[in-house]
Amino acid sequence: MSTPATPVVKKVLADAKPSVIQPMLYKSVVTVYRIFAIVTLYVVLLGVLAYGFVMGFYALNTSWAAPVILSPADDKSLDFTEKLVTSRQTLEDLNVDEKKLQDGVTEMTKHRSALEALEPELQVAIAREKQHNLATGPQLLELDKQKEADNVKTQAVMAAVKEVEAAIDKDLAAGLITKGDAATQRAALNQVQSSYTDSKIGAVLLTDNILEKTTTDTKTLDVLDKQAELISEIAQLDIAIAVAQKQIYEENKQIERLRAALATAKQTPYYLSVSGNNVVNFAFVPYDNQSSASPGSAVYDCYLNMVLCRKVGTVKQIFAGEEHAIHPIFRTDIRGFLIQMQLDHPESAKSKTVFLNRKPLFF
Fold first, then answer.
1. I need a surface site. Which of 67, 112, 139, 180 has the fewest CB within 10 A?
2. Which fold has domain 64-84+268-356?
3. Where are the domains of the chain?
4. Over the stretch 109-122, which tens digit does the pLDDT of each residue have?
5. Angle of CA points 149, 151, 157, to nearest 5°
6. Do 358 and 323 contact (CB within 8 A), yes or no?
7. What is the tens place of the pLDDT at every residue in 46-84?
8. SS3 label, residue 16
């Protein structure tokens, strides 16, 4: 049976207890600190190694691509749409102008053919008229001389007519003839006078005809002027047709260039982005990874951007135009091109990277 401790013993025990617990507490704190430091160190080291592995992986891997989402509201898409609309409108305007020019050339060609057919007929008519004038001119000259001689003879007769008229007046005054006989005789004399006047008029007209037949008169000059106008109009039509055909040639070349440009534009990702209502998935491929991109190649999407990969689609089309992008890991500017992806899992279009043709780590 134990005996109760004395006050002295109790005091000794109370003084000895704190001296044992305090070192133990200090030792446990140091141990925990060391463990935390070691764990932290390994975590940091593991993070550094993981970061270095990721950097090295994307520096050496040649099969990754970065999905790109193109929207009709993007700056490049809007600029492409504006240029596409402008090119199409220009093409339509050129087609309309080319049609108008073609119609104009057709009309001018018909007009020229009509004028060209008229010009030989005009030349034949001029030659025929000249030949006729050469034949009838001398004859008219002879007739004019004969007419003058006849008028001279008629003038002598007219002097006798005046004497007869005076005799009629005397006979009427003497009562030898009646007024009716006098009127009848005077009518006959007036008819002779009118015939003489008509003869003088005929002589003047004959002189005009002779002048027309033997010289180049105003009528002939009018015909020659018409001929010159005809030749000039044909020449002007030739010039207008040549200019129109040259313009048609130039506009056809421009139409061909625009059509080629539009055909090229239809082979760009921006055309697919703005021209349809269906969602089209694209990816940026750097030039260093070009060997992995080919139509029909498999597309893989991975967790943590490199492990536990699954096939999510195939490469449908490769675009030739150069594009610039920011490296998804290194954040540097890189050059490459775009591809169109046919995705069975559309959510993979939002991944940071995908891999082409094969899995990056075999799992």
1. 180
2. Elongation Factor Tu (Ef-tu); domain 3 (2.40.30)
3. 17-60, 64-84+268-356, 86-243
4. 999 898 888 877 77
5. 115
6. no
7. 888 888 888 888 888 899 999 998 888 888 888 888 998
8. helix
